[in-house]
Design goal:
Blueprint (H helix, E strand, L loop, with lengths): L5 E4 L5 E8 L2 E6 L5 E5 L5 E3 L4 E3 L4 E3 H10 L8 H11 L10 H16 L11 H25 L1
Antiparallel strand pairs: 1-2, 1-5, 2-3, 3-4, 6-7
Helix pairs in contact: 2-3
InterPro entries: BVU_3817-like_C_sf (IPR049281), BVU_3817_N_sf (IPR049282), DUF5606 (IPR041218), DUF6852 (IPR049280)
Protein name: DUF5606 domain-containing protein
Pfam families: DUF5606 (PF18347), DUF6852 (PF21186)
């Protein structure tokens, strides 16, 4: 998942990508529109998606794990408050219903829908160890050949 680079900004709709930090705030780019803007730290709070978690009866479940569960059972469009709560109870049966509000669920479903449609929730490919070793051996051979060529020229 590629959500490590994304954040939520209080008081603003949608998700943002950090571009630069300044002494009094940050420069962020809207993921949806691509619009870049300065956001003052005095006026806004910034929450990286990787630090957001959902309260459960026993512990907190990271948002990345919530999204992974939602991929197995994606939401349908046009859900009302009761449907959202029912859906979230199916996905995370042990979520703390007194702490997780319908507005939180609505926001999470909207984020999931957008991120899933735009490929942010695709699993990142990890190279096999065999491929990594093979590539490093080829690089070593190439470096050795280059150094031999240089020494022959001298």
């Amino acid at each position: 998942m590629k959500i490590k680079e994304l954040m939520s900004v209080s008081g603003l709709p949608g998700l943002y990508r950090l571009i630069a930090t300044k002494q009094t705030g940050i420069v962020a780019e809207s993921v949806k529109t691509g619009q870049k803007k300065f956001l003052s730290a005095r006026s806004y709070q910034f929450s990286p998606l990787e630090s957001i978690a959902i309260y459960t009866d026993s512990d907190a479940l990271p948002l990345e794990d919530v999204f992974a569960r939602m991929k197995d059972n994606p939401p349908t469009e046009g859900m009302n408050k009761a449907d959202l709560r029912e859906y979230f109870t199916e996905v995370i049966p042990d979520h703390d219903q007194s702490k997780v509000y319908a507005s939180d669920i609505k926001k999470i479903v909207a984020w999931f829908t957008y991120l899933n449609e735009n490929g942010y929730l695709e699993e990142e490919e990890v190279e096999d160890e065999a491929e990594v070793e093979e590539n490093s051996e080829k690089e070593e051979e190439r470096d050795t050949e280059e150094s031999e060529d240089i020494s022959e020229e001298e």
